[in-house]
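Final report, section 2: Outcomes. Of the targets proposed, TlpA family protein disulfide reductase is the one most frequently requested by collaborating groups, and we therefore present its record in full.
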Amino acid sequence: MRPSSAARWSLAALVVVIALIVAIWPRDDDVSTPGSFAEYRDRAGTTATGDAPTVDLGAERAAAGLAECPRPADGGAAESTGPLAGLQVTCLADGEPIDLGHAVAGRPVVLNLWAHWCEPCAEELPYLQQYAARAGDAVTVLTVHEDPQQGSALARLTDYGVRLPGVQDDGKSVAAAVGAPAVLPVSVLLDPSGDVAAVLPQPFRSVEEIAEAVRTRLGVTT
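The predicted structure is given below as tokens.
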């Protein structure tokens, strides 16, 4: 027996309702690529919880071969009076906690805020390493990874061949302390006392751009 017209219309309506439910049902596999610098920072706030404290990253640290985190210019006595004084972060090279303000005190500093998924950061980091080699002890260049996934940061630095000293800052405390905008990458220039000389929310495109920023903002020619 054929179904009545009313039954056919009811079945069609049910199919449409089911299709709409499927279309709007939340998905966990959204892997869209962010299209602007602001979206890079937004993604950092919505990533997975990151490496658990018990995860052993020894192999990743060894593969990355990062330089040790900096120490005060005078060997220990220098103290920062700037916004980073007393701020605790984790050294990427060995996983040990450090007082960032104390670590960078006593000489000019370029802090580079980045994340492992940030494409402009990937382009910029090799220039920062080249600049660090050129500047030597005159300027400290230090990376600050903001995403919770520390293992991914180590893997990216290994891929990039970047050996700069770096710290892990899950809570974006450095950005908050210096008043950095919600974009990545950001370079923060600090004078020897630890005070902020400039916050530059832009990727550097060459070693010369970095050197010029350091010269004009910190008065250091390298």
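Strands lie at 88-91, 97-99, 109-114, 140-145, 166-168, 186-190, 196-200.
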